[in-house]
Predict the structure.
Amino acid sequence: MNKRKGNHRLKKLASWSLVGLVLGLWGGWNWSKRYQTLGCKQEPVPLVELNDWEGRQEIRFVAIGDAGTGESAQLQVAQAMAQTCQAKGCDFVLLLGDNHYPRGVTSVNDPQFQNQFEIPYKDLDLPFLVVLGNHDIKGSPEAQKYYSLISNKWKMPDFNYHFKAGPVEFYGLNSNCSLAAWSRLYDWLGQAGEPWQVVFQHHNFYSSGAHGNASWPLRAFFEARFGNQVDLVISGHEHQLEHLKNPNSQTDYLISGGGGQTYGGSVPAKPKENSLFLSTQPGFMWVQAQKDLLEVEFFDLYGAPLYRYQRRK
């Protein structure tokens, strides 16, 4: 066996033995049950290919999470996204989980696909790159994956997947079963070659919102293992727009969970110390990526700009 590959496998074994022990002790997980019910099982090959954007000098995309209500806020955000994409340009949409409230879908023929996805986004002629949220796994995760074979817009090649778009490598993760997702991420990052590395998933690591930060073991392991490799983590889960930064990590944490579901009367009291921007309005995030520059902009449900951030290589 090649010495370099052997060392890589030993490091991987040690890493996942450690994280399995820590997370197992911390949460008392029933891994067998989680693997079967939470969308952890991978396909032998991806259901759909995502290679339309390779070799591009620049890409532009929008990101929304917690959108699947079919109600007025989702429709307003969808309209604002369509207008922004027409004005500024968009290549695709990242759909960050909780795609169908309150309990996911039951099959590929579930009418919620029409009411909470196809109809709200009828004016956005773009592919949607989809990951699962915690509400989605209350129904059939498999149905959300296999809807990729029916819809012209909905793209979920697998529960965890990787694709290249211009100067960015994207990693869509099912954060309902982080061990399976991170094992894939470890392998993919080991072969990464583009300037920017972007993870998108449902659950956040840091937040000023109702859910707060992820547990310390999850945050600590992710940042120890991936913090010097991943540039952006884009998530939803919190029904807000937020930019957070851990000063000890190169990773920017961006929450775009204002796609449709709202807090109602319960909103965060104040931003946390490591929060650079926070809005509890419904809205979305737009990103432009070039080889040496990332530009991030948050918009409200009327399409008005709220916050802008640039990061250079």
Remarks:
- The radius of gyration is 18 Å.
- The CA atoms of residues 97 and 131 lie 5 Å apart.
